[in-house]
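#onboarding

Welcome to the new folks! Below is a worked example of what a typical request in this channel looks like: someone posts a single protein sequence, and someone else replies with the predicted structure as tokens. Don't worry about understanding the tokens yet, we'll cover that in week two.

Example request:
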Amino acid sequence: MNIELYNLPEDILFVIWDFIKDTDKIVLCKQFYLRFHSDLYREKYIHNKTYLYFIVKNDYSFILENIISNNREDIIKKTKKFTYKNFSFASKLAFVHHYASTLGSTKCHNYSSFYIKENNLSQFKNSCVRKRKNTF
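Example response:
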């Protein structure tokens, strides 16, 4: 039996609202995203590549802007472990720039290009992408 939410009284809806996790409220509107995204990012995705894949693949430039502005050091920090397919990237920002251009995510690619140009981070644009050699 399916009950549609708009048929329920407001008192019941307020009770249901209290049981919804804050991290699930992020997708409802921009206001909830700004309020609760730091909890979600710290909780699950701080070192998870799949979150960046998801953001760039779906071209969520608003979320990418917030992640880069709130976690600048983590995004720009040089690392040797960030790989994608046969490419190694010096930082997560270099990965985002390359992956967005590969997928054709115009908003994310434009924002990453703008951020690189604005902060004089030209070393992250193309030089950080290097093909790994597979030797057996």
